[in-house]
Sequence to fold (632 residues):
Amino acid sequence: MVKANKSKNNVKNFKTVSINNLTHFYGKNQNKKQVLNDVNLNIDKGELVLLKGPSGCGKTTLLTLIGALRTCQSGDLTVLNNQLNGASRKTRQILRRSIGMIFQGHNLLRCLTAEQNVQMGADLIKGLTYLQRREIARNWLSAVGLEEHHKKLPNDLSGGQKQRVAIARALSANPKLLLADEPTSALDSVTGREIVTLLRKLAKEQNCSVLMVTHDPRISDMADRILNMEDGKIYSAHSELI
Amino acid sequence: MSFSFLKFRKIPLAWLLLTRQPLRLAVAIAGISFAGILMFMQLGFRDGLFDTSVTIHKLLDADLVLISPRSKSSISMSGFPKRRLIQTLAIEDVEKTAPVNLNYLLWRNPENLKTRSILALGFNPSDSLLLDEGFSKKAYKLRNPSRVLFDKLSRPEFGPIEEWFLSEKKVETEVAGKRVIVEGLVELGPSFGADGNLITSRETFLRLFPANPPGSIEIGLVKLKKGSDPELISKILNKSLPNDVRVLTKKQFIEFEKNYWKNSTAIGFIFSLGALMGFVVGCVVVYQILYSDVTDHLPEYATLLAMGYRLKSLFFVVAREGFLLALFGYLPAYFSGQILYSVIRSSTKLPIIMDAEKTILIFVLVLVMCMGSAAVAMRKLVDADPAEIF
Fold:
């Protein structure tokens, strides 16, 4: 891995995510509450990073900020070479197409079949015909081992299967970064581990970085790096402030 | 072009959102169709009324029509001097004229002896009154006094005249308290203003209605020579004739009658209001359906935003749902409308038809209803916050 220059102004940033002094508040005036306090974080290409921490410590806020779902208030937040502090709505929307997201509750579209759900991701790729995009969707569906179930609606799939569809959907748009928020919390331990193993395998194949928020101690061994978060600050696994 | 559109199409989300919830779709279609049928009925009645008010006007064999400026409609005709009609002959283009008397008289049903108001037309049997070719053959029978031709499309309340007449029975009854004999049948058609019609000679007409001054007529028919311009001649005549008469082209005469019903009575308003109510009901139904659809799928829409879809493309999904609902709802409304129209035609004898104007107008109204409701329901989409779904 090439170590990138940490300068804010360096456009040729080789990090997938580079965060310096990121601070975030919720609410206004008296109700103002600090959720992120001077966060610094780098994620390299193809790296799988686990983010742990108690509820309410700001993990999800950090995830939504990196995912360009929230406006950045202060600090330096660069995702895939896009400075998100002061970025326009349009920039954030375009950037989101390069970020795959996997949610706790899978969030599949109930009225679409498994294959169609995956194709909603593939449909974001420009310049491909319908049939090409369907081919992509089918390939991803078989990559997560669900080619048999491509005609099924989410309601007819098990929890683990739904989460596999969600992974296929997230990966089908060729993301450079995957954000996952407790993807295993609704699953039993065996399925949960299977899902993360699969996620890790596919992400490594695509050289796609992964930032996963989790409480689940059983999957810690699969991470390249584990970060702990508490009271809006990030520590490495050795409790060392980065 | 259409080929590349097909090639680069995306998942038809709007279609799937609707069709994968069949119950909701059925409710929506029922609601929209109901609104559509209501509008078809109301506007059908309105147009039918306006059309029936001119059933006789359309049949008159004339290029120009002279009426009194005090006449407001066929149910309130005033007389004007017959001289004016003769004066039109001064213009070279005028081929022939026909004076016509028109009034409502009381007809006695020969079966149950009840009286009922009937529209009576009086003309000279040697003149041409109606466009109908076979009519002149029947007209000569009116040369004898107290003879009338009865409109067989008149409402049944006037008695079984056609049946009696065809069974060679002598049909004799009273009009305005005087004895008349039915000498033949004609086919005119009832209107909102007149339940039935009869045609007689001017002589008989004056006998039935002696208060009418002999030199006064209600309608003057003018037939022009071939190739002359009715518009132009009506202008010339209006200028040259005194103010106690108005010259209209046949088209203007028809419009004059329709305008009376449209503007001077509440009928047009009532039926338009009925149609408006259908429209409002439809709007509420479509809005309810689309709003709950958006609300139910809000997390899914937020997910799409998080994936990088634009808010605009989600607006289009809701707009497409509205468009599809308009199509799905309009078609059953159209076919039910056709059926109901033919039921009304056969039971009321009113000429209610599915013309291009209504077909298009109501489709546009249904479309506006659905797209408008979709536009309001879209506002809920703004609440889809992708930051909230983690």
Q: What stands out?
A: The CA atoms of residues 81 and 216 of chain B lie 5 Å apart.
